[in-house]
Write a structure and sequence with these properties.
mainly alpha; 72 residues; flat
Length: 72
């Protein structure tokens, strides 16, 4: 992130940051289905797979750390 952008966001009031976040979220949801709803479904499924894999890796890492802490 550029320093100028960061300074702008920090200078915003909370309600301004929220309004911007909601506007950008709406834009992202609209672009999810480009060029069509089937593409949006595929994008969402891919995101879900990546999210699930990330969660599994995090849980495995935490479990490994727990086991190492108990044995050490």
């Amino acid at each position: 992130m550029e320093q100028d952008d960061l300074a702008t966001y920090r200078a915003m009031r909370p309600e301004e940051r929220l309004a911007l976040a909601l506007e950008l979220s709406a834009l992202c949801w609209a672009w999810l289905d480009v060029p069509d709803r089937k593409a949006g479904d595929r994008k969402w499924a891919a995101w879900q797979r990546e999210h699930d894999l990330s969660n599994e890796a995090m849980l495995a890492g935490l479990e490994k750390h727990r086991r190492e802490s108990e044995s050490g």
